[in-house]
Design goal:
The complex is a heterodimer of chains A (360) and B (532). With 360 residues, chain A is mainly alpha-helical. Chain A is 66% helix and 2% strand. Chain A is built from 12 helices and 2 strands, in the order H-H-H-E-E-H-H-H-H-H-H-H-H-H. Chain A is globular. Helix content of chain B is 35%, strand content 22%. In chain B, the strands form 4 sheets. In chain B, strands 5-6-7-3-8-9 form a 6-stranded mixed sheet, with helices on both faces.
């Protein structure tokens, strides 16, 4: 899939917001099928699909677990499937169809989000997205990128350590037995972090900010400190006072103002270019426009009828969810990346993935 | 190009200088090899060239350094990044992003280069290093050699005038190391780039370099000159050079081709064949029969069968991914056969608990850091003995036999690579196993440390222990192994006595054997012993 990263951002943001706007299982199912199509099409042509199918499977497992959990904890509803003795703590009482359906719909909402982000990560390289971040967020983006690179290394290290200690006769019996596993993992990770930091330093990480005078740099640093302090104070006061006072809002506005000014000023001095080989195509326009249109439909429906997108199967509400065909049709637009890819390359075969040469 | 004058450097909180009054000049376009024992200051010296020392490490630096007209201490590493490209030892730990193309542009984006220029340079380095096919690949799917080539490509995008490499091939198999060194030679000869390289395995690199620098350490003066001038002064040397030194050949041969000119002077080459005594058949300790194993459907071992006996040392060789590590894990019970049978000390690994196997088998993984966690070396030994329900006893003789006696109370992770490797070995040997498995035991070791390992292997053989070492190091196999098994794509390709296998192989053969093509001669001592 060769869409522009910004088109993917529009797609994932639109679909995620739509998913959060509704609990209606019919709409969730449409979103799920759309995201699934994108994931399958992207996974077939991408060398990046790697571990994301595992994440999807894990999500499915969590979803399945939430259904009995909900059914055992919520005892409302008229359609009783069976009953557990009332004297059983927490789980005792009626097990109802309404609770089962509610659990399934709640779990599905989480799984849809996982599907969306798995599809995004399968379809495009995360570092391409990070590269699009404005200069002010560049450092945060790099940290995220390093985190993504570090995770597979950590998993590999922990496996090696577990095996190495196992052949020394190590068994896990109490928390003290964690030390032979945790200490090598921590020290190895720290050593790796130091080596990476050294490598980044040697390759010029940090950009050219030499035209910033020491006085100006100090001023901007103090401004960031002030902004963070005000943000913390405003948030604490807001939580403490419960009822938002006007001056709490003023403090927060000042905080955001200080931070925005300081970061923008720093970004102007940070000379760093961006590399991208992607060109914006008609398909990107189609996907972005489709995603925004679907989101707009959802927002309009939500604004005009506050309850149109909600679903609560417990009495006095109906067990069957309502269905607005326009909403259903709008959500099908989130399948566009997959459909566009299929129409463009209907019989394309995925490039064979080359296996890593190192032994697993 | 590089000028160091009276350079002295102390790491923070140390009183002895790592570099002491060092003077050095390197001309534009030179290919320079820096050698010296572990801990002599090679890495420190290389890091002075781009300002990582002292900016990243702290400490106290005295003297003057000038690199391509810049002062690295004033410019800082990021200022020097467009002049000096630095490649580190471990290809795993120097990647910032997760795909090849993103990695290539990382430094250019930091240097604020315009997009068209970045595009042009990416295409150039991809072609220059022959890695265009890797462009869209994730870093984690690359082999070690590919990773190191991507690292070199990433620094080349800034078009530095100098490339500095700190043991870039120490983590690679011989073929991957050859790929990297060939690229360096090309960059040096075709583009005139100055290359400064530190390396332990001289036999891999000495033929490529214009000049050698020997840093003896302990504050002694730097020795500089052509390889022929410096090699005679080293306390160790690759086998070919060692032979030349012992037989007084002049000039010293750096390649097999050069050594062939002296063949006529070699009395041993004309000596009659000596009869090799037939090995005494000892008891079988390992019996593998038609072993199959696959990771997620990808076959790693396909019908492997062989036996190992008491007192036998077997070198398991083959490319990365050929199944060596998987086979070792089968032998220690970490993996179990999907088909076939593995008997270790008479125990079927599919039928007995892993605890029963590890009482008989000691397994030292590639990376000693995976098992070192205790505060002292003594505690590491005690941990293993405690796990195996063995009584506490004096670990002095064991540590002394591995020359670790002086480090008993030291924090293991503060020791050098070779010392850590030996501590890991001691931690495994503390369980008194009858069978010892070593996975790439010479990775990162210098010649002296390899000699210690060879001595250890000889001792284990003499007490009747079975040793299987998965290694790329043909010289170690030539010195220590009775038998070589070569794996290819999960199958046993060759299994036979070391002398026969090496003589018939073009790749898995020692330098001396390549020179003489005679199964009587694998090592320098073979020639000297047979010489009249």
């Amino acid at each position: 899939m060769k869409q522009h990263p910004l088109a993917w951002v529009a797609w994932v943001c639109g679909a995620a917001v739509c998913s959060l706007l509704t609990r209606n299982p019919l709409y969730q199912v449409i979103l799920t099928l759309s995201a699934w199509l994108v994931l399958v099409v992207a996974g077939g042509s991408s060398p990046l699909s790697g571990g994301w199918m595992g994440v999807v499977r894990l999500g499915a497992l969590i979803w399945v677990i939430t259904i009995p959990f909900n059914a055992l904890m919520l005892h409302q509803g008229n359609t009783v499937l069976f009953s557990l003795p009332a004297n059983w703590p927490l789980v005792g009482g009626n097990i109802t169809l309404e609770a089962v359906i509610y659990g399934a719909s709640a779990g599905l909402a989480i799984w849809v989000l996982l599907l969306l982000f798995s599809a995004l990560n399968t379809a495009m390289d995360a570092s391409e997205l990070i590269r699009l971040a404005p200069p002010v967020f560049y450092q945060a983006g790099i940290i995220t990128s390093i985190g993504l690179t570090f995770v597979p290394q950590m998993v590999k290290s922990s496996q090696e350590i577990r095996e190495a200690q196992r052949v020394r006769g190590h068994h896990f019996r109490s928390w003290r037995d964690l030390l032979p596993l945790v200490i090598p993992l921590l020290t190895t990770s720290l050593e790796r972090a130091m080596e990476l930091a050294e490598s980044m330093e040697a390759r010029g990480f940090g950009g050219e900010t030499n035209d910033l005078s020491t006085r100006r740099r100090l001023y901007l640093s103090l401004l960031i400190l002030l902004g963070l302090g005000l943000l913390l104070t405003g948030a604490a006061l807001g939580l403490w006072l419960q009822q938002g006072a006007w001056w709490t809002g003023m403090i927060l506005i000042c905080a955001v103002g200080c931070l925005a000014y300081a970061f923008t000023a720093l970004a102007q001095h940070s000379k760093r270019s961006h590399y991208s080989r992607r060109r914006w195509t008609w398909n990107d326009t189609l996907i972005s426009a489709g995603s925004l249109a679907a989101l707009s439909v959802m927002i309009v429906v939500r604004v005009t009828d506050n309850l149109a997108l909600t679903y609560y199967p417990f009495p006095p509400n109906a067990l069957l969810p309502a269905f607005n065909p326009w909403v259903g049709l709008a959500l099908v637009l989130y399948a566009l990346p997959g459909l566009v890819s299929i129409l463009r390359e209907p019989f394309s075969r995925p490039e064979p993935m080359r296996e890593p040469e190192a032994e697993p | 190009m590089i000028h160091l004058q009276h350079v002295t450097y102390y790491y923070p909180e140390t009183h002895a200088p790592v570099l002491n009054n060092l003077n050095l000049d390197i001309a534009d376009g030179e290919f320079v090899l820096l050698v010296g024992p572990s801990g002599c200051g090679k890495s420190t010296l290389l890091r002075c060239l781009n300002g990582l020392v002292p900016h990243f490490y702290g400490g106290k630096l005295q003297g003057q350094i000038e690199v391509a007209g810049f002062d690295p201490t004033a410019q800082e590493p990021r200022g020097m990044s467009s002049v000096v490209g630095f490649v580190f030892q471990d290809p795993e730990t120097q990647f910032v992003v997760d795909t090849v193309e993103s990695e290539l542009v990382f430094a250019m984006e930091n240097a604020n280069l315009p997009q068209p220029l970045m595009r042009k340079r990416v295409e150039e380095v991809l072609d220059q290093l022959g890695i265009a096919h890797l462009r869209q690949r994730r870093i984690s799917t690359l082999s070690g050699g590919e990773k190191q080539r991507v690292t070199i490509a990433a620094i080349l995008t800034l078009q530095p005038r100098i490339i500095v490499l700190d043991e870039p091939t120490s983590q690679l198999d011989p073929q991957a190391a050859e790929e990297v060194l060939t690229i360096l030679q090309k960059l040096n000869s075709d583009l005139g780039m100055t290359v400064v390289l530190s390396e332990h395995r001289l036999e891999r690199v000495v033929q490529y370099v214009d000049r050698m620098l020997y840093l003896p350490g302990a504050g002694k003066a730097l020795v500089s000159g052509t390889p022929q001038q410096v090699l005679p002064q080293l306390p160790w040397a690759p086998p070919l050079v060692d032979l030349g030194r012992r037989l007084g050949w002049h000039p010293l041969p750096l390649t097999i081709k050069e050594a062939r000119k002296h063949l006529a002077d070699l009395p041993a080459a004309r000596a009659p064949h000596s009869t090799v005594p037939a090995p005494i058949q000892m008891a079988v300790t390992i019996d593998i029969n038609n072993l199959w194993y696959a990771y997620n459907g990808h076959p790693a071992l396909k019908g492997v069968s062989f036996q190992a006996r008491q007192g036998e040392i077997i070198a398991l060789m083959g490319r990365n991914g050929s199944g060596k590590s998987t086979l070792l894990k089968q032998l220690v019970g970490l993996l179990q056969p999907q088909r076939g049978q593995v008997l270790v000390a008479g125990l079927d690994t599919r039928q007995v608990d892993a605890d029963a196997i590890i009482k008989q088998v000691g397994y030292v993984p590639q990376n000693p850091n995976s098992l070192l966690f205790a505060e002292t070396v003594d505690e590491e030994i005690a941990f293993t003995r405690h796990n195996h329900h063995l009584s506490d006893h004096d670990d002095g003789p064991l540590l002394d036999s591995l020359q670790l006696g002086e480090f008993r109370q030291r924090y293991p992770r503060d020791l050098s690579v070779g010392e850590r490797q030996r501590v890991a070995l001691a931690a495994i040997l503390a369980a008194e196993p009858q069978i010892i498995l070593l996975d790439e035991p010479t990775r990162g070791l210098d010649y002296a440390q390899k000699e210690l390992l060879s001595a250890f292997l000889r001792r284990e053989k003499s007490v009747g222990h079975t040793v299987i070492l998965a290694t790329h190091d043909v010289e170690l196999a030539a010195v220590a192994a009775d038998r070589v098994i070569i794996l290819g794509d999960g199958e046993v390709v060759v299994d036979g006595p070391t002398r026969a296998v090496m003589t018939q192989s073009m790749v898995f053969s020692s330098q001396i054997n390549k020179l003489l093509h005679d199964d009587r001669f694998l090592t320098v001592s073979d020639i000297l012993r047979d010489a009249p």
